[in-house]
């Protein structure tokens, strides 16, 4: 089994900030808009270096999306920044009508996604945003796993024409993907080859999947681990190739069990190659206040949960 090295915990939102800073230097059409959360979204450097291309909209997220849509008409590439809850749920109508329906080249960049927003609680956490965004025709949905991948994704979406939802997080998590690695939208990454069970993970759960695979190996179970950073378009070829070998799958995500990665994988399997599947996800509930670690443990979004589901699904084969 290949060992992945954590080079030091970093927050994925800082990866977005670093990518946006680099884009500001290399692409004069990139503009940034923020809804009064510059520090939280790590947009400080872009604002400092390119004040003429930065727009502080204030706590007016719907207006921010409308302005971003308008800026695309002049050839600009707008990156909007606020919490995932306010990036999607609060402005769904504006995204649907002004961005998705019109196929505007807006990059909706959302921090503090999922439970790991932490102490701010259920009103600020969002666990349904992937579902909201993936159901919009033409919307690309990306959920990155660490600092390096978030930076790479930020750079990549600037070259992709069309609306994108880029989802990342608040806490410091393992940084283990290659620095300056290539990011191909819609292309899954095979992290570990295995023969007994496929673990398909996204976001903060990718590192947990690798930890689970190590524990499974100690029990004699060979786990194949796939990093799905792009939930839409989904790399169905990679998924089907893996489950043809292993015959069962566990999906893992920091999202509601309804509407997320797990359901997209289940649809793919149902249409092509039905096999046993287990889900690591929030069981159709809101979150609550707590530290990220406390919440991930309570809602069973960690390597222990992935390990248990993998054992279960292997026994179901």
Global structural class: alpha/beta
Strand content: 15-25%
Oligomer status? single chain
What about the largest sheet? 7 strands, mixed
Helix content range: 25-40%
Q: Spatial order of the strands in the main sheet?
A: 3-2-4-5-7-6-12
Query: Low-confidence segments, ≥5 residues, pLDDT <50?
Result: none
Give Rg in angstroms: 19 Å
Give the overall form: globular
Q: What is the first-to-last residue Cα distance?
A: 23 Å
- Helix and strand pattern: EHEHEHEHHEHEHEEEEHEEHEHEHH
Number of helices: 12
Instruction: Output mean pLDDT.
Output: 97
The count of β-strands is 14
Structure report:
With 317 residues, the protein is an alpha/beta fold. It has 12 helices and 14 strands. The longest helix has 15 residues, at 12-26. The chain is globular, with a radius of gyration of 19 Å.
